[in-house]
Write a structure and sequence with these properties.
The complex is a heterodimer of chains A (about 300) and B (about 300). Chain A is mainly alpha-helical. Chain A is about 75% helix and about 0% strand. Chain A has 16 helices and no strands. The longest helix of chain A has about 30 residues, at about 100-130. Chain A is globular. Chain B is mainly α and about 300 residues long. Chain B folds into two domains: about 15-75, no CATH class; about 85-310, MetI-like fold. In chain B, strands 1-2 form a two-stranded antiparallel sheet. In chain B, α5 runs antiparallel to α7 and α6 crosses α7. Chain B is globular, with a radius of gyration of 25 Å. In chain B, about 40% of the residues are buried. The chains are: A mainly alpha (about 300), B mainly alpha (about 300). Chains A and B meet through α2, α5, α6, α7 and α9 of A and α1, α2, α4, α5 and α6 of B.
């Protein structure tokens, strides 16, 4: 097996090369329709310019996080300066945030994960109910959820704060987790997936075999919906991590802040070390970026399923 | 909208239907409860609060005693609706939307068409590069761009004509529009790309055989077929823009001339925090409601205009 592996790779890669040169693949156009070289060049130039626009700021973030305030204003912006101030910046990030920086990252991770797990489970349950059960009030429920998709959520945050204040939930982790775990979009995705990938015959067969509804859901349906659940989890996780207004209103203790709110606090300090702020920004988005690209195909799955809202 | 799963229901007798309804609601329950807490109660709260003000029980301007909720009728709503600051902020947001949304949607659609045109390889790389900014939380992206706009720090200020100021009263709206465009173009592009890739390729081949150019295929076949995705993206962008908050909050931290009411959402937040007059739960709720009405009206107008065109 181990000996065979290199050979198979070799054939398949040469196969790809050959296919590209002679036989058009199923999703490619035949050679007679191949684009003109000039047109190709224009397309490549446009795409590379777009690439620079999207990537250069992120690249600059990396460069800036290694520079001192003085180097930021005197040295060439798009390259590292002779003196690497990364360690200094890290130390001043820690002292500016009173050692709370990693706690903030941890908080973001906690809020996003808990909201993501609960929100995904509840969304899939609701989506499954809508797709596979007839129950009174279903049409109204679907209408209300779809209305929730279009509702400007920031506008709800102010009355939500008043409500949570009355309930005594303000300045607790639940003030962030509960609102973040409610995702009408997640229900919509769950519904679409349950309709397309959970065969009604399978559920009926399990019922005839005597399985109860909870068992059917947790052993059969959840397994079938696993890819959908990753997609829903991603959407909720990212939305929770990115939220700013909600924690800004709900959380006042420094040790409950998520990283977005913590870094915003840093901005308002008098004359902060800019490299340290940029380093904080970089470290604060790194977990998200990694998750993002590791699970990239699930994003596309979500969008293809009619994903329209982040 | 949904295919109602009537089959199991119609087969069974009355008791079975009732059981099915019960199970459906049990699966809906966790989401439904949270939806009520996070969406419906806040709407009721904001309507209720909008009709009340907190005044000292002692009476009079300097009256002592506890704050009590007092019914004030339409006072708060009238104050909100006649607030110059509110409509000035709304005007800024509308100007912002009128330029930012078309630019973003057209660029996103253009990039998606280029990636779908088979003119270039390495589609996966470009797709990832364009989507990367979406992984960066709005607040953190705004902090990064704020530094990119700051003359002492910015890496590209030296290449621009002297006197370029990204944060002057005349340019700051465009500078913030750039932040939003940077973040969301890739996201919208992915939605368009998903829609484009769902179009069967036979259609293009048939058009090619009929002598249609790549340009004609793009404008006559592809664009009309992703029209619905584009309409929805515009609608969601309008709703998102009315709530514009993160970018102006960050910009204001370095440009205090922007004030506490630069956008309606900033005004609402600062009204709740007691940093602008009128302040308090009542006026903040009234501002929220008014914004919801404006957002709803814009969405309806847009939908009607599009329907008439179609």
């Amino acid at each position: 097996m181990a000996q065979l592996a290199p050979t198979t790779t070799a054939t398949s890669s040469s196969g790809v090369v050959r296919r590209r040169r002679r036989v058009p693949a199923a999703d490619e156009l035949p050679l007679s329709m191949a684009p003109k070289p000039a047109l190709r060049a224009v397309a490549i130039v446009v795409l590379v310019i777009a690439c620079l626009y999207f990537l250069v700021p992120v690249y600059w973030l990396v460069v800036a996080s290694t520079k001192s305030n003085a180097d930021l204003s005197t040295t060439f912006g798009f390259w590292f300066s002779g003196k690497n101030s990364l360690i200094d910046n890290y130390n001043s990030l820690m002292s500016w945030t009173q050692g709370l920086f990693w706690r903030w990252v941890g908080n973001s991770l906690l809020y996003s994960t808990v909201a993501g797990v609960l929100g995904t489970l509840f969304s899939v349950m609701a989506g499954y109910a809508i797709a596979k059960f007839a129950f009174p009030g279903k049409k109204i429920a679907v209408g209300v959820i779809m209305g929730g998709l279009l509702l400007p959520v920031a506008l709800l945050t102010v009355p939500l704060y008043l409500e949570f204040h009355t309930l005594g939930l303000v300045n607790t982790i639940w003030a962030i987790i509960i609102p973040s775990a409610v995702s009408p979009f997640g229900v919509f995705l769950g519904m679409v997936y349950a309709q397309s990938s959970v065969p009604t015959e399978l559920i009926e067969a399990a019922r005839i075999d005597g399985a109860n509804e909870a068992r059917i859901f947790f052993t059969i349906v959840l397994r079938l919906l696993a890819p959908a659940m990753v997609t829903i989890f991603l959407f909720i996780f990212v939305a929770t991590w990115n939220n700013f207004l909600l924690p800004l209103l709900m959380v006042s203790s420094a040790d409950l802040k998520p990283v977005t709110l913590g870094l915003y606090g840093m901005m308002s300090y008098f004359a902060p070390v800019k490299g340290a702020v940029m380093l904080g920004a970089l470290l604060g988005v790194l977990p998200l970026v990694i998750l993002f690209f590791a699970l990239q195909r699930y994003w596309r799955a979500g969008m293809a399923a009619g994903a329209v809202k982040g | 909208m949904t295919t109602v799963a009537t089959r199991p229901g119609t087969r069974r007798r009355g008791r079975g239907i009732r059981r099915e309804g019960l199970h459906g609601w049990l699966f809906m329950a966790p989401f439904a409860v949270l939806f009520v807490v996070v969406f419906l109660i806040p709407i009721i709260v904001s309507v209720r609060e909008a009709f009340y003000s907190q005044v000292p029980s002692g009476g009079g301007l300097f009256g002592g005693g506890e704050l009590v909720d007092t019914f004030v009728g339409f006072d708060n709503l009238v104050t909100a609706a006649t607030s110059g600051a509110f409509w000035l902020g709304m005007g800024r947001v509308l100007v912002y939307a009128a330029f930012q949304i078309p630019v973003m949607i057209i660029v996103a659609l253009g990039l998606a068409l280029l990636l779908d045109s088979l003119l270039v390889r390495r589609v996966a790389f470009f797709r990832m590069a364009f989507f990367l900014p979406y992984a960066i939380p709005g607040v953190i992206a705004a902090m990064m761009w704020l530094y990119l706009y700051t003359p002492e720090v910015s890496p590209f200020m030296q290449f621009l004509p002297a006197g370029t100021d990204f944060m002057a009263p005349g340019t700051i709206l465009a500078s913030m529009a750039n932040m939003t465009t940077w973040t969301y173009t890739g996201y919208n592009m992915l939605i368009f790309l998903a829609a484009l890739q769902a179009i069967p390729h036979d259609l293009y081949e048939a058009a090619r055989l009929d002598g249609a150019s790549g340009w004609r295929i793009a404008t006559r076949i592809k664009v009309p077929l992703v029209r619905n995705a584009a309409l929805l993206a515009v609608l969601l962008s309008i709703i998102g823009t009315v709530q514009l908050f993160n970018e102006p909050m960050i910009m204001e931290s370095a440009n205090s001339w922007m004030g506490k009411a630069y956008t309606p959402m900033m005004l609402t937040y600062n009204s709740l925090m007691g940093q602008v007059s009128p302040s308090g739960n009542g006026p903040a709720s009234a501002f929220s409601l008014l914004m919801a009405v404006v957002a709803g009206a814009m969405a309806v107008i847009y939908a009607l205009v599009q329907r008439r065109k179609a």
